[in-house]
Amino acid sequence: MQSRPRSLPLSLLALLVATTLSACAVGPDYASGDAPGAVLPARYAHAGAAAQASTNQQASSEALRQWWSGFHDPVLDRIIDCVLAQNLDLQAALSRVEQARAVAQLADAALLPSADANLQVQQQRQSLRSPLGQIASNFPGYERNHTQYDLGVGASWEIDLFGGLHRQREADLASAEAAAADGLGVRISLAAEAADAYFRLRGAQARLQVLEQQIAAERQLSELVALRLQDGFSNRRELAQAQARLAGARAAVTPVRAEIEVQRNRLDVLMGAAPGSLATQWTSDAPTMAAAPSLDALPAPAQLLRRRPDVMAAERRLAASNARIGVAMSEYYPKLSLSGLLGFESLSRFELSERTLQPTAVAGLRWRLFDFGRVDAEVAAAKGAHAEDLSRFRQAMLKATEDVENALVNESEVDQRRLALQQQKAASEEALRAVTEAFDHGAESRVEVLEQTRQLLAAQDQLIVAEADSARASVGLYRALGGGW
User: Fold this and answer.
1) Is 334 exposed, middle or buried (0-12, 13-18, 19+ CB in 10 A)?
2) What is the DSSP secondary-structure string of 114-170?
3) Residue 161 confidence (pLDDT)
4) CA separation for the pair 468, 292 (Å, rounded)
5) How high is the pLDDT of residue 347?
């Protein structure tokens, strides 16, 4: 009974020292605002004048969050909502986020004591031929059968003297945040993929209508040339040319029809449905090409760190590798663990008394004093991984800026082509009106009218492709800016 008063102050002293030292974490500290990213320009080189003037202002978060609503297409809104609710890749990404968060919770739990309870009842019949049985059986009152009762409550705690567990917690939390950013990236990619497939589908549907009109015009022109050949007003070369154009128009329909079905299947899979189900129902109406929305303000290149999930994930992985340097460095220092067990043991029955009390207290110290450079190698490996993640983070920043610049260039060039084709279509419509008027007055033949109709339909086909490309280019810009979450 004299040892207990001395052990209590020692335990309190050890706990006080451990608590004081646990506030000191070895290794470099990290702040997200201090991430040494790549040197980026203040504004984009290929942004338009209107957007360039406001490039340092934060773009409307609402416009970027649900950019697809800017197309004012309810079918597109319905498809993307279904994709974000049912896509299997997104569900898998969210599951990975949950796994990473669970690992982070384990790191939190490692900082706290753990306790467990144990209850055991053991029955045994002693062999008389065993060494113990042969000796014990010679004593009066020996019983071969006995029951042993064990009841105990134990607790253990690894004191984080030099912050290794805290650094591990930082690393796991940063890894969980990186996984969450990856999940956002999957969400953005899926929304953009769905919009891209939708506009390709609508463009192919509109082209099919024009190609069918073109086939009808080519057929009329071929028949008219054949009649003129019978009357001697044409020759076989003109007929062969007309027939070749008709065959070419018919051949152009095949890949367009295939494109329609391929994009419908693509949308179905993105929506987590069987190919040939939802998209066929939702896109069976007459196709319409919505005007692509434009951004009046662009987030500055440096702001992509807060907009692009891939950059956010790269920065969080950089933070995690920085914390792992501290985890490795903590192995230079001793580790202290405390454990205790309050138990009762009896051969007769459960008896919670002083006679059956069997307490245990253990204080353990582990220190890797001589490991022949293993800790040095672990620290060097952690620093090397951090240097790699730093390069990846800088590359992610540059890649994000490149994506935006390329998207701006693509959007600008596609828009110029669309405007030029609109002018071509308008001129073709005017030419058709003129030749039709001349035909009505007998100044032109039916062949000229059909030829001009064919040219107008060809211009409409090219314009439809340009309008679909313009919408897809707008989607690419929103995707590059990190819109969609």
Assistant:
1) middle
2) EEEEEEEEEEEE--TTSHHHHHHTTSTT--SEEEEEEEEEEEEEEE-TTSHHHHHHH
3) 78
4) 9
5) 67
Residue 422: count of CB within 10 angstroms of its CB: 14
Copy the structure tokens of residue 413: 């060039």
User: pLDDT tens-digit profile of 196-251?
Assistant: 999 999 999 999 999 999 899 888 888 887 887 787 766 788 788 888 888 988 99
336 by DSSP, 3-state: which? strand
CA separation for the pair 480, 405 (Å, rounded): 9
Six-digit token pair at 448?
A: 């000229």
| Strands ordered across the beta sheet of 114-125 | 114-125, 145-159, 335-346, 360-366
**Which residue, among 398, 303, 360, 285, has the nearest Cα to 7 in the 3D structure?**
360
Cα(18)–Cα(408) distance, integer angstroms? 57
| Amino acid identity at 470 | S
CATH topology of domain 63-122+145-480: Outer membrane efflux proteins (OEP) (1.20.1600)
The answer to whether the beta carbons of residues 283 and 266 sit under 8 Å apart is: no
3-state secondary structure at position 354: coil
| Cα 371 to Cα 165, 258, 285, 327, 376, distances in angstroms | 21, 66, 73, 17, 9
Residue 59 burial class via C-beta count within 10 angstroms: exposed 0-12, middle 13-18, buried 19 and up? buried
Residue found by looking up tokens 């951004």 in the block: 295
The strand pair at 335-346 and 360-366 is best described as antiparallel
Contact indicator for 253, 247 with CB cutoff of 8 Å = no
Nearest-CA neighbor of 309 among 39, 44, 92, 64?
A: 64
* Residue at token pair 């001793």: 334
368/438 Cα distance (integer angstroms): 100
Instruction: Look up tokens 């004191």; give the residue.
Output: 159
